[in-house]
Amino acid sequence: MNPELFSQIASAVVVAWGSFAAIRATRATTRTMLLSNLLVAVAMLLLVRLIADFGGWNSWFFYVWMLSLCGYVIAVYLAATVWPTLSWRAANKKTRRSEMANLSVSSVLTLAVSGALVVPGLLLS
């Protein structure tokens, strides 16, 4: 199997999984969990953007990418409609700690992937 094809298939699976995770994030019970789940989905999207070769307009991966971005747009719309009905934090103290840990890990993951996208560009320019 061609390594480039394998990379594109793996990237397509990750970006589709990220789109599904973003849509699934709207099932969260609190705003903190909603933000945490959306950050994980964005980190997947950024990670694929970092490592994937898009191959131009005639490549099949570009169309999978665009379809997944439509999934992200739908997820943001669903999150915006659910947002007013959610409380900020859970009532249970143990659940609150878990929510904050998830949000912290999601934020660090997203910042790390974003930094991996930005830092090489800053060093090369």
Brief description of this entry?
Helices cover 78% and strands 0% of the residues.
Q: What are the low-pLDDT stretches, counting only 5+ consecutive residues below 50?
A: none
Tertiary shape: globular
Helix tally?
4
The largest sheet, given as strand count, sense and whether it forms a barrel, is:
none
What is the helical fraction, as a range of percent?
A: over 70%
Q: Would you count the extended β strands for me?
A: 0
Gap between N and C termini, in Å? Answer: 36 Å
- The structural class is mainly alpha
The radius of gyration is 17 Å
In percent terms, what proportion of residues is strand? Answer: under 5%
The average pLDDT is: 84
N-to-C order of helices and strands = HHHH
